[in-house]
Amino acid sequence: MTAPVISVRELRVGFGAADVLRGLTLDVLGGEILGVVGGSGAGKSVLLRAIIGLVPLRAGTIEVLGTKMSSATDAQKRAIERRWGVLFQQGALFSSLTALQNVQFPMREYMQLSERMLGEMAVAKLEMVGLHADDGRKLPSELSGGMTKRVALARALALDPDIVFLDEPTSGLDPISASGFDQLIRTLQQTLGLTVFMVTHDQDSLSTVCDRIAALAGGQVVALGTLEAMQASRHPWVEAYFKGRRR
Ligand SMILES: Nc1ncnc2c1ncn2[C@@H]1O[C@H](COP(=O)(O)OP(=O)(O)OP(=O)(O)O)[C@@H](O)[C@H]1O
Ligand SMILES: [Mg+2]
User: Fold this and answer.
1) Under 8 Å CB-to-CB from 181, ≥6 apart: which residues?
2) pTM given for the model
């Protein structure tokens, strides 16, 4: 863990009259798995979407991999976008494409590759997340919940990213599948040297895979640090959330 790869400063994001994020400041360090927690509607997904440029900022700055996104040229933005992968909260596989075609989608957009290379690389990504090449032929409707998450992860890894954004990657999975998925994220992070920004409600994920945790409330980061730091926080929401969760 070294310098920040994402620096968010005094970020304000809102819709209509209300601000969801109110002067939020946060660093994500290179090579860490940062868990982001907060009540439903606290703005976790909005923060993720703001960082990847999907919602406009009302104030503040976001720097990713040394580039200030608001003043970057389109070419600079595209170069940065190519270095991250995203697993969205809402399933987000294309339902009419097979698993393999879903993984190939970002490759087609950003890489000039032959069909044969595309096929081989996408199969390699599926295998990297513990799926079989045959699973690549299935449509999203033919995949289990856990397999769907793995295909979405394989797609997030399609471009060999430096940063992976995961929004509730284990939600809807049974505890054993969830723990398998956590292990997978940890292994990939270690072998590929990824920086991981992971929104999660999963207490097990927080305690087993996250290096640090950021708690969001009132549109700001109200606690930041290890699980122990969370348990020591006197912020009411953080205290309630982590109460009785000591292992
Ligand atoms: N595109 C949008 N237009 C209007 N309001 C939005 C939009 N996106 C998010 N919001 C609002 O911003 C607030 C934060 O939403 P967000 O999705 O970030 O919550 P969250 O912390 O991810 O919650 P959950 O844990 O339920 O996923 C909510 O009040 C939501 O209604
Ligand atoms: Mg969300």
Assistant:
1) 146, 149, 150, 153, 169, 170, 173
2) 0.94
Amino acid at 207: S
- Express each pLDDT in 52-79 by its tens digit: 999 999 999 999 999 999 999 999 999 9
Which residue, among 225, 165, 223, has the nearest Cα to 195 in the 3D structure?
Answer: 165
Judge if 178 and 231 occupy the same domain.
Answer: yes
Do residue 14 and residue 62 come from a single domain? yes
Residue 173 and residue 78 in one domain: yes
Domain's final residue, options 160, 195, 216: 160
Same-domain check for residues 217 and 104: no
Look at residue 31 and tell me whether its pLDDT is greater than 90. Answer: yes
247 falls in which pLDDT band (50, 70, 90)?
Answer: very low
State which of 45, 49, 171, 197 you would mutate to test the pocket of ligand 1, scoring each by most atoms of that ligand within 8 A of its C-beta: 45
- Does 212 contact ligand 1 (Cβ within 6 A)? no
Do 166 and 156 lie in one domain? The reply is no
Tokens of 136: 């690549």
Instruction: Record the tokens describing residue 201, joined without a space.
Output: 């409600």
